[in-house]
Design brief:
This protein is an alpha+beta fold. The chain has eleven helices and 25 strands. The structure holds fe (ii) ion.
């Protein structure tokens, strides 16, 4: 008996040790070669772009070289920029994170750049295209939470997005890029998943609650955040590089930090005051907001009324166009100002989207604000802006079009909203038997009730739309006579 006890005790200790040591193996160690290379913007996207990268601590200096790209392998007039290098000690290793901002560039021009130690270790030469200095068509990809199994199951989403979509000008990450804020391994997976895509398509990330850590009784932004990204520092004091805006070819893109907003009174007040100014003094035609926590929650009984009492009042006052969010691990698109299921209406105020690009899934609450839902589905979105039209398309991770709408500016601050969700494509809201069996009786009852109510609402609207269409045909037919 004693032997059996000893065996069990030591086996469990060995098992725990094995688990612990497995978790502490550095599978993405820093080396002399630059890795985790990522582009973003700190200043004007038409004349500058920023690059961050990591090296082992033996490389204390970072250098960037840049030239106008040429099909010839000989690059003329190479300019040199020195990086700011800061040491980051993570749970796994110490490394230098280097960051620089290439400035004084020509708009709408393809450059080649590389980063390294200035002597022996360099990245490859990488293409990067600067923005136009005026309003011009562009597109970007929007990802909801990556967060879990990033290498295993999020990588397919970002790679499908990259291979399927027209050339996107940037990638917007709506928070919870990783699961445990200070765990270097997870950042290693995030950089592995996107690989060299980050190097020539800049990232516009906003932090989620999982980018926050509890350290010495304080809630702080991941120590990886600021060394990993170079972002505009035009936000409120203390929230630089998490609250910011940038103007891209006629569109103002705004990142808000809802974790700080929901956690600290001073950060909600400072963001409200800042946002009021940023929206009031906005010369751009379009305004896109990204933030992690949703204004309307599509999962379970989650709700953040303070976002509606605060931020939403400014979105409505200044007629923000779209709000792209995450956090709830399910797909929902709708708008409080839009009749559910309407196909063509006049609209003011934003369209709200919540999406998930990684594999962690929550049950949708299928509440009345939702016009299009999906459960248990990894997605990415493409948003295209062209003069007076903004087109939003959601794709499953297989590259299938799942949802679509257009917003068209019709003057005097008014917009036409056109719901273009593929007709006849069944909404992905059925739960598998296995998923249903995981719910307890109360959860299952609530799900079935919400599911039936959603279906009933949809049916009413589909019939109303059919009737409208028939009426429209009759009117046309009469006119012909
Ligand atoms: Fe979250």
């Amino acid at each position: 008996m004693k032997n059996l006890f000893s065996l069990l005790f030591f086996s469990s200790v060995w098992f725990l040790n094995a688990q612990t040591s497995a978790a502490l193996v550095d599978y993405y160690p820093p080396g002399p070669m630059p890795d985790r290379i990522i582009t973003s913007w700190k200043t004007d996207p038409s004349t500058s772009f920023a690059v961050n990268w990591r090296t082992a601590v033996t490389v204390t200096k970072g250098i960037g070289q840049i030239a106008v790209a040429s099909a010839s392998p000989d690059f003329d007039s190479i300019m040199v920029t020195e990086a700011i290098s800061e040491m980051l000690v993570s749970d796994l290793s110490a490394a230098y994170y280097h960051s620089l901002n290439f400035t004084g560039l020509k708009p709408n021009t393809t450059y080649v750049y590389r980063v390294g130690d200035g002597q022996n270790t360099w990245s490859e030469w990488i293409h990067f295209h600067t923005a136009e200095a005026k309003e011009a068509p562009f597109s970007f990809i929007y990802f909801g939470d990556a967060q879990n199994d990033i290498k295993s199951k999020w990588s397919r989403t970002i790679r499908q997005a990259y291979s399927d979509l027209p050339k996107a000008d940037f990638m917007l990450h709506a928070g919870d890029l990783i699961n445990v804020a200070q765990r270097d391994h997870e950042w290693g997976e995030w950089f592995y998943a996107g690989g060299w895509i980050y190097q020539n398509i800049p990232s516009v990330p906003t932090p989620g609650n999982h980018e926050y850590a509890r350290v010495n009784n304080k809630t702080i932004l991941s120590k990886h955040w600021r060394p990993s990204f170079t972002l505009p520092e035009n936000g409120p004091t203390g929230l630089e590089e998490s609250v910011y805006y940038l103007d891209y070819q006629g569109t103002r893109v705004i990142s808000l930090n809802t974790t700080a907003y929901l956690s600290f009174d001073q950060d909600s007040i400072s963001q409200m005051l800042w946002l009021d100014k940023v929206l009031q003094n906005n010369p751009n035609k379009w305004t896109v907001v990204t933030m992690h926590h949703p204004v309307y929650s599509p999962a379970g009984d989650r709700d953040n009324p303070s976002l509606r009492n605060g931020l939403k009042t400014l979105f409505d006052k200044y007629n923000v166009d779209v709000v792209l969010q995450g956090h709830d691990h399910t797909y929902a698109r709708g708008g409080n100002n839009l009749p559910i299921g309407a196909t063509v209406i006049d609209s003011t105020g934003p369209v709200y989207a919540v999406s998930v690009s990684g594999p962690k899934m929550y049950l949708s609450n299928l509440l009345p604000w939702i016009d299009r839902a999906a459960v248990e589905t990894q997605l990415y979105q493409l948003v295209q802006v062209n003069k007076d039209t903004l087109t939003y398309e959601a794709y499953t991770t297989l590259g299938e079009l799942y949802d679509k709408f257009k917003l068209i500016k019709t003057g005097n601050g008014r917009k036409k909203f056109i719901d273009l969700a593929p007709p006849g494509l069944k909404e992905r809201i059925d739960l598998t038997t296995a998923r249903l069996e995981k719910l307890n009786a109360a959860e299952r009852g609530k799900w079935i009730e919400r599911f039936n109510a959603y279906k009933a609402r949809k049916l009413v609207h589909e019939e109303a739309i059919k009737a409208l269409t028939t009426k429209g045909k009759m009117v046309k037919a009469k006119k012909k006579k």
